[in-house]
Design goal:
mainly alpha
């Protein structure tokens, strides 16, 4: 979303959710309050970004898992 110059409110409109949900989805992988979208919201994100954002984008990269930063 940063690449598209969009804020949380813009994302909420695009994905059909609250701006708080978008804010939680954008948090760092080690933030315990980070939100991984459920199936309905994930589908909306993938479709409305035309596949630019995928389920893999909501999982921490392997190097962070191996460093113990997130899981």
């Amino acid at each position: 979303m940063r690449d598209r110059d969009m804020d949380d409110a813009d994302g909420a409109i695009l994905f059909g959710c609250t701006k708080q949900a978008v804010n939680r989805m954008r948090r760092h992988f080690d933030d315990v309050t980070r939100l991984r979208p459920g199936p309905k919201l994930m589908t909306a994100v993938v479709r409305r970004t035309q596949g630019d954002i995928t389920p893999a984008d909501f999982s921490p990269p392997v190097y962070l898992i191996l460093k113990g930063v997130s899981a």
